[in-house]
Model the fold of this input.
Amino acid sequence: DALDMMRANREQALKGSGSAYQVTFDDSVSAVGCVRCSSDQQAQNDVALWRERIQALGLPSGEGEILLAAGARDGVKVTVRVRWDDDRDGSNAGSHEQVLVESLL
Done:
């Protein structure tokens, strides 16, 4: 979903590490109300919706991050991570599982 949202708002994604799509696990992101959203606002809304979808999956402490390399005219490398708490029996506090996808936009 995250990669498709960035492909639809390619101008913003090509800003690379300066893009509004750049978000770490620790960053807080909220949707913004707008009728005609700028590409920055659209990216913020996209990320907020994407994170809501991760929460809806029911993963324990599920969260996501999107990291973009420095922007370039011909594309930008994107790393998308989703992680969750996999401490099922209490013996591995802070243990996380994650799925990582890298792509060139």
User: Anything to note?
Assistant: The chain has three helices and three strands.
